[in-house]
């Protein structure tokens, strides 16, 4: 343990155990005594636990110096600093420039809570700029967030974050509404949407500050323009300009197929090529239409259970998936889907851009012919091994329905197997993850 750095190194019994643990905790940050714990790989192969203080310090120092780059850059920077510099407390001041889409308090919480427990947020305008004050539970969380997010854009090409440390040591919030929120006090009144600021905060804003009125929470983390899909930045994932190829690992080789990966990753973008590795069928390469879609797929599918295993998705070092040469033995493991009619996002401005949600136990079904009944659809989904918990046709449009299955993993399997299923009458079932529940 490196207590002064709030860090520790943990050596597992095997590399497999370490991979399993990192995959498990990547999508769900664990908490110890109310504090988030970030778990990442070290290049240090073995820990020496001699009782001599000097040797322990040397081993720890070697481990810190040997840490990987990339997603560990934040940790490295923090380790290099050793201690927090004066003025680096737990309150961040955030300015959002090029505000093309509304940025709500909920959006800020979604982005910044990736780095630790967010206690309070206040949003306002000053000098015609959208600004916010955000307080973390711990100064270390604030440091991580500033290192990772400063200069990043919340949505593609707009809503750019400029972050520094506030001189305030704590925020006082009197009302929980769409301008201010204390996440530790659910009993606060809603107020009149004009939270009165403490004198110290008002002074920090300046006398002419006014609070910005923004629409309510976005229904989705995806904001769309007719020309292209917008996407939220994904903390922890390095932005690789132009790289649209993903490395997908820890797959179940008995169950996964190129078509299955095409359908699953196709929920988050148009998949051009899939290659399952011939020598290690637990690994695959998935080439998306562009880097934005690749990043979107990582954010939603990394850490998801698929056929009994926790799938791991990250950017590949390859820039494209190569097709096998003529006569080269491939066993059908490489597929080209560039011209597939099943692409969800080939039409500019398609409604599909507005309906991209994380994997969920509830699926949205569409393109259902009039002759197909509730029992028909229930039987169809049960035939894939799913447990149907609830079902509901849309009142205004009987071509669409919601079906709730026994688990998220069941829904993933059902989507892979039944998207584009032929229901007769020239109707092919369309299956998506839903944000709604029944």
Structure summarized in a few sentences:
The protein has 438 residues and is an alpha+beta fold.
Describe this structure in words.
The chain is of the alpha+beta class. The protein is built from ten helices and 21 strands. It has helices at 15-25, 53-65, 73-81, 105-112, 139-149, 199-205, 258-265, 291-301, 374-382, 408-418, and strands at 31-32, 35-36, 91-97, 118-126, 129-136, 153-155, 158-165, 180-182, 245-249, 271-276, 284-288, 305-306, 309-310, 312-315, 334-336, 362-366, 388-393, 401-405, 422-424, 427-428, 430-433. The strands form six sheets. Strands 6-7-3-5-4-8 form a six-stranded antiparallel beta sheet. A hairpin with a 2-residue loop joins strand 12 (305-306) and strand 13 (309-310). Helix 3 (73-81) packs across helix 5 and helix 7 packs across helix 10. The protein is globular. Mean pLDDT is 78; it is low at 51-86 and 193-241.
Q: Please, how many domains?
A: 4
Number of helices: 10
User: What would you say the CATH architecture of the largest domain is?
Assistant: 2-Layer Sandwich
CATH topology of the largest domain: Alpha-Beta Plaits
What is the class of the largest domain in the CATH system? Answer: Alpha Beta
Major sheet description: 6 strands, antiparallel
Shape annotation: globular
Question: What is the fourth-level CATH superfamily of the largest domain?
Answer: RRM (RNA recognition motif) domain
| Estimated share of beta-strand residues | 15-25%
Number of strand elements: 21
Question: Low-confidence parts lasting 5 or more residues at pLDDT below 50?
Answer: 51-86, 193-241
Give the overall pLDDT as a whole number: 78
Helicity, as a percent range:
10-25%
End-to-end separation: 47 Å
Strand neighbour order, sheet with most strands: 6-7-3-5-4-8
Structural class: alpha+beta
Radius of gyration: 24 Å
